[in-house]
Request: fold
Amino acid sequence: MSPPGRQPLLEVRDLRKHFPIRRGLLSRVSGWVRAVDGVSIDIFPGETLALVGESGSGKTTAGRCILRLMEPTAGAVRFDGQDLLALGPRDLRRMRRHLQVIFQDPYASLNPRMRVGTIVREPLDIHRVGRNRAERDAMTRGLLERVGLDASAMRRYPHEFSGGQRQRIGVARAIALRPRLIIADEPVSSLDVSVQAQVINLMLDLQEEYGVAYLFIAHDLAVVERIADRVAVMYLGRIVELGTRQEIFKNPLHPYTRALLQAIPIPDPTRARERTVLRGELPSPAAPPPGCRFHTRCPVVFEPCATLDPPLVEVAPGHWAACHLVPGPAGGASRP
Amino acid sequence: MANVLEVSDLSVHFATERGTIRAVDGASLRVAEGETLGLVGESGCGKSVLALSLLRLPPPPGRIVGGRIVFQGTDLMTLPEKRLRHFRGRGIGLVFQEPSAALDPVFTVGSQIAEGLIVHKMMSRAEARAEAVRLMNVVRIPDAGRRVHDYPHQLSGGMLQRVMIAIALACRPALLVADEPTTALDVTIQADILDLLRQLKDEYRLSLLLISHNLGVVAETADRVAVMYAGRIVEEAPVRDLFAAPKHPYTEGLLRSVPRLGEPARSSDGGRRRLPAIEGSVPDLTRLPGGCSFHPRCPDVLSECRTRDPRLRPLTAAGGDPAARQVACFKHHDPDGRPR
Reply:
């Protein structure tokens, strides 16, 4: 799946995160929620890979496992060739310099008791960047100005800022150490549209300036089309389709990807809706359907879908899909 | 066409320690019979407060301080509380964004649908129960006969929103007010619920006031659109006119900043195309700027915008019906209300 001759910055192989369901007085494990169930992705330096899916797809859990904010059940995560899952706390901390995060909710992700200057300076303090506090303060001012905030923001508290401004503070903190990869978990979905655009533009500009790569976790495909180089679509803990932005938006192969694209309301009243409405609900990840996980809602379900689990196969160079209706090319490799 | 609902100059204020918040500040709108009016605005613009105030239930400590609300010819503002109850549920049905917060966790969904039928329609328990099952079928809840005994926590968000719609429909209201009915739902579920609302509107000959921040949802569902900013309606137009040629700079900015599918992400020279944004952010409602509330963010600001407050006025260019298109902006009218 890798463009030849390039080394991925991040390699995720067969990542799994299963949560135990505990019942009764002795909290015996009575089942498992398979939130992430075999996810493999690569992210190349300077690119944006969007991980899209609806609630319960496992996209947020996958992001947290990659950062080791949560310990995965199984799988491998290599960053710049190093196995992140094998790192001890000290080495992990050192590694996190290169691997930062932006959270969805700018109201919950900034400590309300800390001044904005301290929040943004904290990563610089932890990693002892610069010679002294004064130097770090100067850097912090520069960072705040870079994200479009006045340096006077340093002395103020998060509650004094609007949602969009808080998300800029989150971005300033994330870029403080000049990371090579930022995992952004729904960074604009709690913002109003007029403000959303400001934050997306800021992220695009920073990518151009610093060459940072993004794992952009999102559910809004219209936003994803603007920011992503490649897109991975998740459904019930699995990747069902993966490809370049052009391929996913112009030539979606998986029926779920198609339904997701068709479901987006179009801000143009003259356009007629052509839409296959998906009936039914997302099944519980504690009891995913046998065979293809999407078969209970699939508009083109046929006989093998209920029993056979389709593998993710490379249909065209760099375009992968997991669906029985999508034949692989002759000799097409299926993912290990 | 007769209007089901006419709201004029409605103001709802919140007294807080930091000063008075004018959440709704002289807003006027109308919903015609069988029509869907989309009320669009960003967070904090007052659209939800307006919706709740229609039944004189503004969220505390909000107080309706002025205006008129006429529903099917009856002035709801002067109606005694006891007679107003008749309209709650029966005349106007409400659907909220968070069905899990609006439903009572200790009663089955069936009994919550039946409650209104027993109170307003004097049905017996058995009749109401049977009607609840029928309504659950109408809102496409599969296996309704069994699900009627479920508690809210046993249902998904999409199913709970269907239950909310069933409750709102139970007493055959003339107007359904849906406040961000699909915002908490996934897109595939959203598509299904919007489809359901459109179908019910035709079947039940409902009028719909659809409140949403999502311009796509409004474009697909509404006949007419009112745009709200900082407590005011700043523009009102038939849906096609509004999207084809927005007149208020705020509406223009809002429409431009929505990412749309199929737009190229790169320009011809290969560089990233930036999304047009509206600079700044929604103002603090306790410290609204003088003049037009939008003027600090407006790209077309004129000198009068800083001092005078534009009123919503008809756009004469709209042709026949003088009320067809309205806008509150000095680009289109001078401060004395003369067209420019």
Chain A has a mean pLDDT of 90.
